[in-house]
Specification:
With 101 residues, this protein is mainly beta. The chain has one helix and six strands. β4 and β5 form a beta hairpin. This is DUF3219 domain-containing protein. It holds the Pfam family DUF3219.
Length: 101
């Protein structure tokens, strides 16, 4: 399923999107997993975003908003610094306990 996911103000064209709830320390927390394409032109901005690992997440069409950290992350390529490349990023974001909005 395709969705727009906004992470710290950056819109990501998400696909293979899944939302679920996980229980941690007796609290039910949001968790989303999705994939999104990253071009060599956008690589630097996305890398800077993900290194922060402190996110305000919004999924507007599902009316979901939460503060999150990366639970899992991977990419299909490592050469996005080369021109005209497109990589597939896979990301799992989990709500920070005690940070529900």
């Amino acid at each position: 399923m395709n969705k727009k996911v906004v992470v710290n103000g950056m819109e990501l064209a998400a696909y293979d999107y899944e939302h679920r709830y996980v229980t941690k320390n007796g609290k039910e927390l949001n968790e989303i997993s999705f994939k999104f394409p990253v071009t060599s032109e956008a690589y630097h901005d996305v890398a800077v975003l993900l290194y922060k690992d402190d996110f305000q997440v919004e999924v507007p069409e599902a009316n979901i908003t939460f503060e999150a950290a990366i639970k899992q992350y991977s990419t299909s390529v490592t050469n996005l610094y080369e021109k005209n490349q497109v990589g597939e990023y896979s990301l799992v974001l989990e709500e920070k306990a005690g940070a529900a909005l």
